[in-house]
Every structure is written in structure tokens, then in C-alpha cells.
Amino acid sequence: MEKSNRGKSLPGLKRELAEITTLYEISKAMNSSLDLEAIMKEVLGILHDKMAMERGTLTLLNEETNELIIQVARGLSGKAIERGRYKVGEGITGRVVAAGEPIIVRNVGKEPLFLNRTEARGDIKQRNQISFLCVPIKLDGKTLGALSVDRLFQQDISFDEDLRLLTIISSMVAQAVRVHKMVEKEKARLQDENSRLRRQLKKRFHPSNIVGESKRMRDVDDTLELVAKTKATVLLRGESGTGKELIANAIHFQSDRADKPFVKVSCAALPETLLESELFGYEKGAFTGAAATKIGRFEMANGGTLFLDEIGDIPLSTQVKMLRVLQEREFERLGGTQTIRVDIRLIVATNKDLEKEVREGRFREDLYYRLNVVPIFLPALRERREDIPLLVKYFLERAGEENKKNVKYISDESMEILMNYAWPGNIRELENALERAVVLCKRETLTPDLFPIPQDGKGPGLTTFNPELSSEPVPGPLPETIEKMEKSLIESALKKTGGNQRRAAQLLGLTERMIGYKIKRYGLRPPPND
């Protein structure tokens, strides 16, 4: 008798061990991901491997259509999944969701309510060998869907034990469904926010919003509208501060790629040693410190637009690799062997004389012709003075709004100063001057004392510059004479400003980059402070 009892208890111990193992594995799967589909595929696989449960499905209720749809399935084809749709109360699955109670069908071949809508159980003979178990998935007292499995029909199977196990698992699945709904809701919110921001950017960077009515700017607008809808590479040229990045934004957001990435890189802001890895990415272990694979800006911009500012500053070694990307639309990451193909629209900008750079061997001629497909020249502000009043009005309103200042007007004297100034820093300098004036203004009207601009020696910032030059003629060829005079002017300006390159550049009507280049070229050293 005792021997007989031990023989009967062994299957029970095996069952209990199998259930514990199953629940442990499912618990690990639940904690391994936020992807409901990935979780449920693993859960149904565990039920198959550990508990010999065959086809399994997760069916969820679409509250908008009141229809039950198979979300994840094991052992069903894509077409079968598509056919597996039920109204609430329809078939076994529909009844489980409607009543919120589990149902066991011991023999699906003899159950008229079993619809076999997926057509996955074959003919009647095959269905006579299959049992079907379906349990509701409930969350906060509400039935969200159902979890169902098939079993090969056997007389000695304990369906009550199977039902108990599936009920426990369904409660775990309910939590995964809760997280899934939260993730989907947040994803939808972020997508809506992303779409809203893109619409705002598209509106903001519409050509009609680019401030300027001069002929030079109308020409820029006309070219922009023509080129935006194409895939052509665009080369933006002009002095620093003329609005090249603004035009690049306008081209992207008016193109067919407006909903795709817009990636910006300032080539001058990155050291030569980092620029190539930043553009093309690198593989793990490619160099010391490369602890993980990193994708480059070309990959980030795939499908969209890549804007490379200061293109004239990239080293020759990087120019070779960039030429291949432009020709073949493919490259390899640093330290990698896999060829990566990209679909990008390239916009580049520079304030350098690229033709001179080519002649002097600092820029590849073949790359120059690849980039110079559609050149757009942005005029300096001194070449479009008629646009200054419009720009002043625009920057005044924006600065007042951003700084919460009730500054509405600008005096005639102040406008005259702004109109007569050379603006070596172009639009960027004008914008900064207006913002500074608004911040410091204590009234509703901007007055001349708020602008650090030369005013016949009375300005608050800089004074007028009258360099002392020799009246004697300088003998020699004209180019050499001009260089000597330029060198003398720069030396005089540096002396006047105590070696301050920024102020010296403003005195001479140059940019800081230009005066820095000329100081280096002539081997000048700023004088020590007295």
C-alpha cells in the first residue's frame, strides 16, 4: 500500500516542480523587457517547453472597435493571426472576455462554440485530439483580453491544474499589458509632440520668414525654394554671422525630408583627431577608450539631411573619406570592416575662399566640385543695409519677449548709428547688439548710449580708429605694398587696443577669425600691456 502511494505521488512532485520552474522562467521574461510582443513570445515558448502546451495566443480587446484581436501567437501563421478576430461574446475567446471567467474545452472537435476561425487545427479528426484552455486577462477589475493554449487531448490530464497555472500567469501578463499600454500612450504623446514641433519648425523656417527685402536676399529666397525640393548638395557661402545655418534649416524643413533627421556638425569646433570618428563613428576597440560601438553623424542623418558647417576646416585625410561618401553613399566606421550605406542630403557651409584653398593645396579639388553643386552666396549685412530696419524690428521684438522687457521703440539717432556701422560680425553682431540694448534699457525706447558702437569717439564701447601711417610712398610691387600697409594697420590697431584682437578686429571692420589669420600670417605679436 505504501509503495503504491509513493508511486502515485511522484507525478504530483514532477508537476509541482515543473510549475515552479515555469513561473520562475516567466517571471524572468517579464522583467527582461518592456516589449509586450517579445515578452509574450518568450512566455508562450516557456509554456510549450515546460508544460507541453501547444499553440498559444494573447488576444487583446480594441476598445474603439469592441473587437478582440490576436496580438501575439505561437504556432500560428501570419494569415491565421489575421483571421483570428472576434466580437465580444463570439466564440470561446469572446465568451471568456464577456464573462470574465475561464473556459475549458476538453475536445474542440465536439464543441460547436469553438469556431476555429484561425483554421490552424486542421480537420475534425485532428480537432478531436485537441483540448483548448482560455483564461481572461484582468486589470483593475476590467477584462482586457484573454490568454489561450492548446493541449493534446488525454484522459489523464488535470485541466484544473492547468487552469490554475494559466490564471496565475494571466495575472502576470496583465501587469505586462499595463506597462505596454503606458509605453504606447507615452510613445503616442511623444510622436504627437514631435509632429507638433516639426510643424512649428517648418513654419518657422519657411522662406517667407527669412527677414530681408533687398534684391540680394530675394535672390537667395528664390534659389532656396528651387533647391529645397531636390536632393542636390548645397554649398552655402558667406562671412561668419550671415545666417548660413538659418538657410540650411530652411532648406531641410521645406524639403521632402522634413520629417527625417536634421543633423548639424561644426567641423571647426572639433579637433582633427575627433572629427573623423564623429562623422563616421567607430567600432568597439577601434582605439584606446573606444569601450563601445558608436554611430557617426552620417548614420544619424540617414534618410534626412546632414549640415556640415565650416567645411573648409576639415583635414585632407577626412576629405578623402568624405569624397567616397558623396560618390558612393557608403563608408566604414573606424576600426570596422562592414560597409554602411546611407541616404542623406548634404548641405555644407564655409566662410573661406575655397578656390584659394584648392590652389594652395589645402582642399581637394575633386571634393570641391562634388560640394559646389548648388552654391548660395549670402551677402554681408553691409551689402544689404536696406534690410537693417526690418532686422532691427524683428530682433527688438524677440529680445523684448525673451527678456520680458517692455521695450517697443528705437530712436532715430540709434537707427542712424546702426545703419552707418560696418557690422563686421554681420547679423549675429546686430542681434547681440539689440539684445544687449534691450536688457540694459530702462525705458520703452532704445537710445544711442545703449549701443557699444563707434560714434565719432563718443561711443560707450569703442572709439574711432585713426592709425598713424607714413605719408612717404612705399616702393615696390603693388601686392607687396598693400601687404605692408595691411600689416601696419593691424599693428596699429593692436597697439590701440592693448593687444585685444576682438576690439582690433572691430576697429578694422574684420572678423576675429580674419584678424587671427592675418596676425598668424604676418607673424605679429600683440604688444604687452603698459
What would you note in describing this structure?
The chain has 530 residues and is α/β, with parallel strands linked by helices. It folds into 4 domains: 11-184, Beta-Lactamase (2-Layer Sandwich), CATH 3.30.450; 207-379, Rossmann fold, CATH 3.40.50.300; 383-450, Orthogonal Bundle (Helicase, Ruva Protein, domain 3); 465-530, Homeodomain-like (Arc Repressor Mutant, subunit A, Orthogonal Bundle). The protein is 47% helix and 14% strand. It contains 19 helices and 15 strands. The strands form 4 sheets. The chain has a 6-stranded antiparallel β-sheet, sandwiched between helices. The termini are far apart. 31% of the residues are buried.
Mean pLDDT: 83
Overall CATH architecture of the largest domain: 2-Layer Sandwich
CATH class of the largest domain, please? Alpha Beta
Distance between the termini: 114 Å
Q: What is the strand tally?
A: 15
Category by helix and strand content = alpha/beta
Largest sheet: 6 strands, antiparallel
Shape: elongated
SS summary, helix count: 19
| Percentage of β-strand residues | 5-15%
Question: Any idea what the radius of gyration is?
Answer: 36 Å
Q: CATH topology of the largest domain, which one?
A: Beta-Lactamase
Number of domains: 4
